[in-house]
Amino acid sequence: MESRQQRFERLQFAMNEIVFHDPALSFFDLIEGKRDVFRGFKIIYSTNNMEGDFAKTSLKSIEEDCPVLKKYFYGTGLLFFSDELYDRTWKEGKIKIPLDYSLSLDSNAAERFRVWEDGKSLDGSVDDFDKLVRFIKEGEDSGFNFDYSFFIIENYYDSLKEENHRPFNTIRALKRFDHLVYNKEIFDVNNPHFNEDRLSAGRRAIETLHDFHSSPETIKFQERRMLLYVVLLKAVILRHNNQSTEQKKMAELILFCLEYLGKFAKTELYFAWKLLKYGSELRFFDSVRQIDKKTIHKIKGMSWDIFALRYQETLASKGDGGDFFIPFFASFDNRFVELAKACPIRAVLLDEKCQNVITIQLDEKEFQIDLHKSLTPEVQNRLSDTTLKLQRIQKPIELKKLNVIANSLEDELKAHC
After folding, report:
1. Partner residues linked to 78 by β-bridges
2. Strand partners, 47
3. What's the whole-number average pLDDT of the chain?
4. I need a surface site. Which of 122, 202, 219, 292 has the fewest CB within 10 A?
């Protein structure tokens, strides 16, 4: 009988198999001969060796057909693994894979629905918005599912303020969009019609906001975003220390995560590594290359952009049993486009039994090598101890503690101005 600790060790080994598998080689080469490693796990694997379709649209051209749409996975096609799928494929040759997918909206995309529903001009973004509406309404069968929970999470604190009606008005507009009168032959984006009035949509919007306000999951998402913000704050401070090497900065950042946060925040460390190593080359990090009075505000915005990717990771782990969930994202913000280019995602590895999910970036191998070089033997021992790993994973993140650490780092950053 495999213990939880042994299963977790096997999950880590499975991740390494994917990381060190040459993307040019086939998915079959990855799985065959290693079935015992991947047993009981699920994989969503991105590749450029094939072309796949979603909602009657080519995955390769989906961003060209709808410019505000962003794929979560980098490649032109997706491959899937579970024990059942693999065995059935051997027996039947070609099988239908049960997929679910939806489109998440960030704030700038969601609020365009509010402006549009209110009859106001979308100015230069009207053509892209028209393509987005058509993509959603003309998706597979009854339309492409879209999800605005990320908008509510991002605007959670604003939506609690009685004087701030913007979040409510945005959700109400999105509720009315559910009842858009749509015929692709005659639809005019400048003259929409809805078969639900604002009063009815408003009631449903209030119910939705109440559900999110009373959900413990919403607070957990705030904690995860704050964790990301804290790690980015520390990374920006370290980056501007010209007396230290990149390797030493990573070492200090890892120790900071272990000592102050009680976590080895792998995904957050990945984005910090990107900043420390490639911050001068990637446009996404332009806003924090110089420290000034607006830097803290810019880091907060950056943390929400990155958290949008993290949120899609959560969605990708939603598939139940034999199902797989494929997330997409809509944004009118060019920063998010640059982020997606800078941090392409290769695979998601899922252990539904123990509720663990690992995202693997396209450049994960380079990240892992750099990470290993920065570790002292003492830290290496702490990180390789499976018992300590599980303790760190299970340790809750306290929002109050994160806020205290963030305030301290913000004061430190201000001292650099």
Report:
1. 46
2. 77
3. 91
4. 292
